[in-house]
Amino acid sequence: xxxxxxxxxxxxxxxxxxxxxxxxxxxxxxxxxxxxxxxxxxxxxxxxxxxxxxxxxxxxxxxxxxxxxxxxxxxxxxxxxxxxxxxxxxxxxxxxxxxxxxxxxxxxxxxxxxxxxxxxxxxxxxxxxxxxxxxxxxxxxxxxxxxxxxxxxxxxxxxxxxxxxxxxxxxxxxxxxxxxxxxxxxxxxxxxxxxxxxxxxxxxxxxxxxxxxxxxxxxxxxxxxxxxxxxxxxxxxxxxxxxxxxxxxxxxxxxxxxxxx
Length: 261
Ligand code: PEP
Known about the structure:
By secondary structure, the protein is an alpha/beta fold. It has helices at residues 17-30, 37-42, 55-62, 89-94, 105-110, 115-127, 140-144, 148-159, 189-206, 210-215, 229-233, 250-259; strands at residues 6-10, 45-49, 68-72, 99-102, 131-136, 171-175, 217-221, 240-243.
């Protein structure tokens, strides 16, 4: 089964528009395949997810790299209305955004995101024609209680409720153990593979067509960096990475992209 790898950078609340453009320029300089046809043929899909205010500038700069796409970090579930401070899927789509993250653990932890709202946001994004990276993962306490698989099953089943096999073509799932995000602790290659295999097996149970489990890309996230990316990306069920800290360093991000080639 060939699934094109996806290397996605989550910039979180970092980079003004000017800083974001500078970072994209640096990534392009580090990853020189960007401007050539080799980029599309051999490279993974590359995605950067800057803050909302930086999206337009980054989108314009990223157009010089044919395999680089731009995503947002969040989206509201309603089409429009009295939701001060929120951004709709249509607003993102209109500006040329292709992906959005939903359910990132920082949104769940600090902004009250629930499995239900993750599902609503995901469905709204799909309806507007965006692709979605749904983030799931257990906390350290849950891991210590050995309930990781139960947590993943709940988050995946809820996150994907009412989503059809056809819509799954535009869904990516990121397994991000919360204890590994921004901590410098990474799941071992074997533990990460086991969690990804669990999720893939769950997709087999949830969808009658085996095509869903076979074709859905599963990303690892949690302190992936230039040193550990190759080992993680070599695992059978890991189809890429969702990268925070290391995505803000052009050389490291380019090294991770190359590890996926
Ligand atoms: C993330 O924010 O999704 C993430 C994985 O962050 P980091 O790589 O810094 O752990």
